UniProtKB/TrEMBL annotation:
The gene is dnaJ. It comes from Candidatus Liptonbacteria bacterium CG11_big_fil_rev_8_21_14_0_20_35_14. Binds 2 Zn(2+) ions per monomer. The J domain is necessary and sufficient to stimulate DnaK ATPase activity. Zinc center 1 plays an important role in the autonomous, DnaK-independent chaperone activity of DnaJ. Zinc center 2 is essential for interaction with DnaK and for DnaJ activity. This is Chaperone protein DnaJ. Keywords: Chaperone, Cytoplasm, DNA replication, Metal-binding, Repeat, Stress response, Zinc, Zinc-finger. One of its GO terms (molecular function) is unfolded protein binding. It holds the Pfam family DnaJ. Participates actively in the response to hyperosmotic and heat shock by preventing the aggregation of stress-denatured proteins and by disaggregating proteins, also in an autonomous, DnaK-independent fashion. Unfolded proteins bind initially to DnaJ; upon interaction with the DnaJ-bound protein, DnaK hydrolyzes its bound ATP, resulting in the formation of a stable complex. GrpE releases ADP from DnaK; ATP binding to DnaK triggers the release of the substrate protein, thus completing the reaction cycle. Its main location: cytoplasm. It comes from the Bacteria. Residues 3-65 form the J domain. One of its GO terms (cellular component) is cytoplasm. One of its GO terms (biological process) is DNA replication. Zn(2+) 1 binds at C143, C146, C200, C203.
Length: 352
């Protein structure tokens, strides 16, 4: 009997992540195409992974030492099962191995609607101020004809003949312990206990049709590029009145012609006449908030540096305060210089 845990170098209680990591490491080491690889060891590692990465196969292997039946080969046939104080095996545990679940079956839960992702574009100003945006998008909506039930409501339903309206049937399995019966969902009516006399002609029984939905969503100040906003219940309609999926709105912020955003800070470049650099000056700057602020350029300002204006960047999303506005400068020089201007520059050189 193969010890799959030993093959992967793991303890019996190893987690799923530990199984995956061990498999990747050993599969890489023993791959037949690699120097020093081994096709036999590679096959053995792969076999161990196939068993231990599958929850049902692993449970059966832990119980019986095999996934092909009862392969304890002289060992303890009850190994892996839970025993109570009297030493009796827990029959629910045995059922779990043979049937993949407990004694009670589950009523059919029709398929939930798929989640949707929608990309919406906003401006940097809208990201700064926040905006309530109306979004329309194509999707699967509840069929109005049958109200999502999937059948002609005027013709009604019949009791399922297979399960007699219970929605459940009894399945019997023979094991070495004897015969066991398990209640499971009726395959004919999918656990509803009813069969429609006539499916809905508009939706062909699915309970949903192609349509369009509309939602208004609040985009809060400071929202980031690529941020996802979840709107519960606005995805595709579910199958036969099952719950709808969710809508995930991805924010795409348009590039700005003046500001560049980095986190909560905004960066901008200003063209500065050379005389303003030499003599110093006050300049007016329009912020992302739309207000004008006065920036003082000191005499002889080093153009390799930037000026930081506190709290004039983006709002901090979900928090207090703002980022900064960071301004860099490019010197504007005249393309042509008059003779008189050249004389003044020459005089200035002597003074500096």
């Amino acid at each position: 009997m193969k010890d799959y845990y030993k093959i992967l170098g793991l303890e019996k209680g190893a987690s799923t992540d530990e199984v995956k990591k061990a498999y990747r490491k050993l599969a890489h080491r023993y791959h037949p195409d690699k120097k020093g690889g081994s096709s036999e060891r590679f096959k053995e590692v792969n076999e161990a992974y196939q068993i231990l990465s599958d929850a049902n196969k692993r449970k059966q292997y832990d119980a019986f030492g095999t996934t092909d039946g009862f392969g304890w080969q002289g060992g303890n046939p009850f190994n892996g099962f839970d025993f109570d104080a009297s030493g009796m095996v827990d029959m629910e545990d045995i059922f779990d191995v043979f049937f993949g679940g407990g004694f009670q079956g589950k009523r059919k839960s029709y398929k939930r609607g798929s989640d949707l992702q929608y990309i919406t574009q906003i401006t940097l100003e809208e990201a700064y101020n926040g905006i309530r945006k109306k979004i329309k998008f194509p999707t699967q909506v509840v069929c109005r004809e049958c109200v999502g039930k999937g059948f002609d409501k005027n013709k009604g339903v019949d009791i399922c003949n297979t399960c007699g309206g219970r929605g459940e049937i009894k399945e019997t399995r023979k094991t070495f312990f004897g015969s066991f019966a398990k209640v499971k969902e009726c395959h004919e009516c999918f656990g509803t206990g009813e069969k429609p006399k006539s499916t809905c002609a508009k939706c062909s029984g699915s309970g949903k049709i192609s349509g369009e939905r509309e939602v208004e969503v609040d985009i809060l100040p400071g929202v980031a590029q690529g941020q996802i906003i979840k709107v519960a219940g606005f995805g595709e309609a579910g199958e036969r009145a099952a719950s709808a999926g969710d809508l995930y709105i991805k924010i795409d912020i348009k590039n700005h012609n003046q500001f560049e955003r980095r986190g909560d800070d905004l960066f901008m470049n200003i063209n500065l006449p050379i005389l303003d650099v030499l003599s110093g000056s006050d300049i007016s700057v329009k912020t992302i908030a739309g207000k004008n602020i006065i920036i003082s350029i000191p005499v002889g300002f080093n153009l390799n540096e930037s000026l930081t204006v506190s709290d004039q960047g983006m709002p901090r999303f979900g928090s207090w305060g703002f980022g900064n506005l960071i301004i860099s400068f490019t010197v504007l020089t005249p393309k042509k210089i008059s003779k008189k201007a050249q004389e003044l520059i020459d005089r200035l050189k002597k003074e500096i």
